[in-house]
Amino acid sequence: MFAFLKPAPPAANKVPAGKVAGKYRQYRIRVFLSIYLGYAGYYIVRSNFSVASPYLKKNYGFTTADIGLITLCLAVSYGISKFVMGMLSDKSNPRFYIATGLLASAFLNLIFGATASKGVMMLLMVLMGIFQGMGAPAAHKSLSNWWAEKERGSFVSMWNTSHNLGSGTVAPIVGFALAAFGPHMWKSIFFVPSVISIIMAVLVIVLGADTPESVGLPPIQEFKADEYKGEKIDKSKLQSHSDLSIPQIFIRYVASNPYIWVLALSNAFVYIVRYGVLNWIPIYLNEAKGFSLAQARSSFALFEYAAIPGTILIGWMSDKFFHGKRAGIAAALMALLGVIFLGYWASSSLWAIDIEIALMGIFVYGPQMLIAALTIDLAPRFAIGSTTGFVGLFGYIFGEATASYGIGALVGKNGWDKGFGIIAISAVLGIVCFLILTRAERYKKVEAPEAGVVED
C-alpha cells in the first residue's frame, strides 16, 4: 500500500485531560462531515448513470438488457472491490483512503460522457467499481473509531443518509445541467457531477482524521467509559489496529462467525429490493407508467430524499428504545416494504406512485442502515473494514447483480411482472434472515485475541 494511505501513528503528545471533551467534539464534527460529504460524492458519480440511462437508449440505441449489463459490471467489480478494499482499509488511514477512491471515481465518470461505446462503458464501470469499493469500509472504520456502540445507531443512521443526499442530489444536478447547457448537451449528466465530487474529495482531506489516538485522544470506549459502568467491556473493542495479517483477521473474526454470513445474505436480499426498485425507476415509470422523463427524475429523487428523515429516526429509535437491538426492527421494516412494493407494482396514479416510492425509500434504507450498524457492532475495531467488505460483497455480487442484469434481462424477455416477482421474493427472504439475526444480538461479544493484537 502507498505510504500516504497507511494508518497514522499514535500522537506523541496527548491532549490534556481537561481538553479531551472539547477536542473530541471538534474532531467528531470534522470526521463526520468528511465521511458524510465524501460518501455522498461517491454516489453522485455513481447514481447519475441511472438518470442517464433513458438518454443512452434514445441516443445510442441501447436496450434495457444493455443498460443492465453495464450496471452489472459495476455491481460485480464493486462487490469484489468492497471485499478486497475493505480488508485493505483495516490497514489504512480513512482520510486519504476515501479521498483517493472518490477522486478516481470522479475522473472515470468524466470519461463516460466522452464515449458512445457499450464496451468502453463496461470497462469504465469495472474500474469505477474498483475505486468505489474504497468508500464504505473506510467510513465504517471511522464510525467505529469515533462513536461508541450505544450511540452508534444514531450516527450510523445519519451517515447512511449520505447515500440519499448523493443519489437524491443527482436529479436536481442533472436538471440544472440540462437547463444551463441545453438538452443537446445531455452528456453534462456525467461532467457536472464529476466536478462536484472532486471538490468533495478535497473536503475529505481537509476535514478528516484517522483514529482518536492519532490526534492524542483516548480510544472512544475510554472516553465514553461512564456509559459502560457495570458492564464487561470486550477488550478487542478498544483495539484499533492489529499485527495479525489481513487473511488472519478475515478468517478469525469474519469467516468463522456464522452470524456475519447471515448478515451478508440479508444484505444481498435488501440490495435486490433496493436496486431492483431504484435502478429501474426512470425506465419503468417512463415506459410502463407513461411518466415523462422529468416526472421520472423527480420520483427517483423522492426515493432518496424521503429516506433521510426516516433513516435518522429509525437509527435513533434503535438506540433509544431498543438499546442497540436492531435486527427485529429490520425484519418489521422489510415486511412493511413488501406491502408498499406490491402497491407500487399495481398503481397507475402519479401521486400514489410518488407516495409509494417515498415510503419504499424509507423502508429500504432503514434495513440497510441497520445492517451497517450490525456490521460494526459484531466486529472489533481492527476488523471493521474486512467485515464491511465481506457483507458488501454479497450485497453487490448477489444483490445488485441480480437487480441490474438479472431483472433487466428478465424484463426484456418477459415483462415487468416477472422481474418484480424477484423483488417480492427477496423481501420475504430478507425478513427470514433478520429474524435469525435477532439471536445474534444476544451474543454480540467478540472474543478478545489471545495474541497478535496490539493496542495504540
From TrEMBL:
It holds the Pfam family MFS_1. It is a multi-pass membrane protein. The chain crosses the membrane at residues 27-45, 65-84, 96-114, 120-140, 161-182, 188-209, 259-278, 298-316, 328-345, 357-375, 419-437. Keywords: Membrane, Transmembrane, Transmembrane helix. One of its GO terms (molecular function) is glucose 6-phosphate:phosphate antiporter activity. It comes from the Bacteria. It is found in: Cell membrane. GO terms for cellular component: plasma membrane. Residues 27-442 form the Major facilitator superfamily (MFS) profile domain. One of its GO terms (biological process) is phosphate ion transmembrane transport. CDD domains: MFS_GlpT. This is Glycerol-3-phosphate transporter. It comes from Bifidobacterium actinocoloniiforme DSM 22766.
